[in-house]
Amino acid sequence: HWTRSYTEYQLALIALHEERSAEAAAHARAMLRDKRLIGDAFGLGLGLDLLAAAMAALKQGDQSAVASGAGQVFWEMVGHPQRGTPELGPLREDAECAARAQIGNSAYDTTFTLAALTDPFATLTDVLDAD
């Protein structure tokens, strides 16, 4: 599962950079399914960041905020948000800006915070079931 999940990560990243957002979301979800099976909090944070970017690109700002909020919880479990992935900073920032533009700052903040305060594994299940 570990090797396949990081293959899905790379495919999601490539799809995002090539503006194939639906494919990126599918690869991010596949990555998340595998990471959940092996309990990889770092990988779950990473995958949720990618899913948030894909959802924002698909004009689903509410789902982007949910994925970002849940991802933040997994990053906190690791001990350092976005640890070892500074190259993805612009991707995260662009996704947040796009999602905020789509649903508004107040709705984004509320949705992000609610996701961050909810059991992250329950939110992860909801995100994966939305597929």
What are the defining features of this structure?
single chain, 131 residues, 7 helices, Serine Threonine Protein Phosphatase 5, Tetratricopeptide repeat
Describe this structure in words.
- The protein is mainly α and 131 residues long.
- The chain has one domain (2-122): Alpha Horseshoe (Serine Threonine Protein Phosphatase 5, Tetratricopeptide repeat), CATH 1.25.40.10.
- Helices cover 82% and strands 0% of the residues.
- The chain contains seven helices and no strands.
- α4 (61-78) runs antiparallel to α5 (89-103) and α5 (89-103) packs across α6 (105-117).
Separation of termini?
20 Å
Which structural class matches the secondary elements? mainly alpha
According to DSSP, the number of beta strands is 0
Percent in helix:
over 70%
Mean pLDDT: 94
Q: Could you say what the CATH topology is called?
A: Serine Threonine Protein Phosphatase 5, Tetratricopeptide repeat
Number of helices: 7
Gyration radius (Cα, Å) is 13 Å
CATH architecture: Alpha Horseshoe
Order of helices and strands: HHHHHHH
Going by CATH, the homologous superfamily would be Tetratricopeptide repeat domain
**Count of spatially separate domains:** 1
Strand portion, in percent? under 5%
In short:
This protein has helices at residues 2-17, 21-38, 41-57, 61-78, 89-103, 105-117, 120-129. The protein has 131 residues and is an all-alpha fold.
